[in-house]
Amino acid sequence: MTLTKAQSDISRRRDVFSADLVQGARADRIRQLNDRLRCQGDGGRVMITAGVAALPAAVQASIFAAIRSFAAFDGANDPFDEHDFGVVRTDATCACWKIDYYDRTLTAYSPDPAIPAVTIRVLTIMLGAEF
């Protein structure tokens, strides 16, 4: 059976729509996992750079609190809607954070950051000057 052009167009649109739904669900899952690490420190590793480590404990605490409560995600700073990067400013300093996705051996990138069983998330917190 041959499809008419209209049937073929509908089928193609359905495939694109389905792919968009799958990609949207995947981004939702990645975002949830990233937020869990960023806000709760759960589901990965948290690393700080030498510059952050050299700051007084009170300044570090204010940076960490700002990162946990960061909610200013938009299309400019979060184009893939994964909540994997941000910049925070406290009274004392400007800091950046990013989340990278590695395989379980930490020697290569994760094959799929939406699947925790094959991914180790690493949240790195750095001074703005270290970025």
How would you explain this protein's 3D organization?
By secondary structure, the protein is of the alpha+beta class. 40% of the residues lie in helices and 21% in strands. A four-stranded mixed sheet has the order 1-4-3-2. It is built from three helices and four strands. The model has no long low-confidence stretch (mean pLDDT 90). It has helices at 5-40, 50-53, 57-69, and strands spanning 44-48, 85-89, 94-102, 120-127. The chain has one domain (5-130). The longest helix has 36 residues, at 5-40. Pfam families: DUF3768. InterPro entries: DUF3768.
Count of discrete structural domains? 1
What percent of the residues sit in helical stretches (DSSP H or I)? 40-55%
* Shape call: elongated
Q: Cα-atom Rg, whole angstroms?
A: 19 Å
Question: Mind summarizing the main beta sheet?
Answer: 4 strands, mixed
Distance between the termini: 58 Å
Topology record:
Layout: H1 5-40, E1 44-48, H2 50-53, H3 57-69, E2 85-89, E3 94-102, E4 120-127
Parallel strand pairs: 1-4
Antiparallel strand pairs: 2-3, 3-4
Short account of what is shown:
It is built from three helices and four strands, in the order αβααβββ. It is an alpha+beta fold.
